[in-house]
Amino acid sequence: MDKYFLDDFPSLEELKKLSNKNNLPAFREANAHIHTPYSFSAFPDMETIFRLAKEEEIAVLGINDFFVADGYKAFNSGSVQNRIFPLFNIEFIGLLREEQKKGHRRNDPNNPGRIYFCGKGLDYPFNPGFFQNLRLKSVIRESQNQMKAMISKLNGLLEPVNPSISLSYENIKARYAKDLVRERHLAKALRLAAAEAYPDQEEQIRFLEKIYGGKKSKAGVGNTSQLENEIRSNLLKSGGGAFVEENEDSFLELDKIIKIIIKAGGIPCYPVLLDDPSGNYTEFESDTEKLAKALSAHKIGCIELIPCRNGLSVLRDFVTFFHEKNFLVTFGTEHNTPEMVPLTVTARGSEKLDDEMKRVAWESVCVIAAHQYLRAKGMQGYVLPDATTSVDQKRDLSLLGRLVIEFFLSKK
């Protein structure tokens, strides 16, 4: 294992002496949530991530893959080489069975009861503990069984149309995934297999339309991202010919997810969906006051948004409300689709965030940076063992995080 970059950092007292508190920027560009090729990502490799981050002058970047921390080592070394401060995060998909029965949606607009949930500022290396690790491996195994079943159903659709085209889990994993195979890898593999078998674009589209069961393609082959999204929607989602319903064992309960995050040294964080382009909200997020109370009841004091989904004015009001409630508020771009968009965080329609929102997000990112630093030094971080957050120390930790980040950025 390579050396954790925080291992060589000065002690708390030395850091305060070395740093100039009066010369700290109000904020820097930060992106606390990106997926990498270790789950699924628009980025082909880690090198591309850091090259683009440097071009866009991103100071802090957070890895946030589904279920796995396999990318931490490469992310740690890439951050040091490129002087971009890393946040070590993870994302889970859970299931609230009572909410599912009621038809109530959390932060998945299409699946009642399903919840996406993140851990922020985890320890490096990732260590959730023996029993939590077993539980996590079981969930991953079930998710991969689902992918294998989908591939089998895809091959059943392919065989009568073109028996020379056949997909395999091992090949998809070796060519397109680092370890965890997901739906988007299947869509990419099918798109590339179709392109290889049918160099003529019209023939390629006719082939796909047959696989779709006669449904006409709206994407065409010119936009590969759009085509992969179409394949996924037509074949791999509910109602599609290769859809396989997830086994309930593929999901963790929320309290177990939070236990894994706490045991691994992280900060529990709820990813907020907020408004869609039509101004709709899920049942859980429709009342901001109730949302804050519900999260606080679970000792969740951190929220995260992917602002490109949201209208600027709605986003501003929401961020202001939760900031005043003393929540940590972070932003990201996800990059969990084939589309390559900038790493710089913007609202829907590429509208720029105002300085106040950037300042709020920067303050929260600095708290997470301080949390990582304190944990690496064997001290108490922002979250206590019982998941209670140290809200009364938020300002001090934000300042400490600024010092940690600036010291890191200034190192040669």
Please characterize this protein's 3D structure.
This protein is α/β, with parallel strands linked by helices and 412 residues long. 44% of the residues lie in helices and 11% in strands. It has helices at 12-18, 46-55, 72-82, 97-102, 130-158, 169-176, 183-197, 201-211, 224-236, 254-263, 288-297, 312-324, 355-376, 394-410, and strands at 30-34, 60-63, 85-88, 90-95, 114-120, 267-272, 302-305, 328-331, 346-347, 351-352. It has a 5-stranded mixed sheet. A 3-stranded parallel sheet has the order 1-2-3, sandwiched between helices. Helix 2 packs parallel to helix 3 (72-82), helix 7 (183-197) crosses helix 9 (224-236) and helix 13 packs across helix 14. The mean pLDDT is 96.
Structure keywords:
412 residues, alpha/beta, single chain, 11% strand, 10 strands, globular, 14 helices, 5-stranded mixed beta sheet, 3-stranded parallel beta sheet
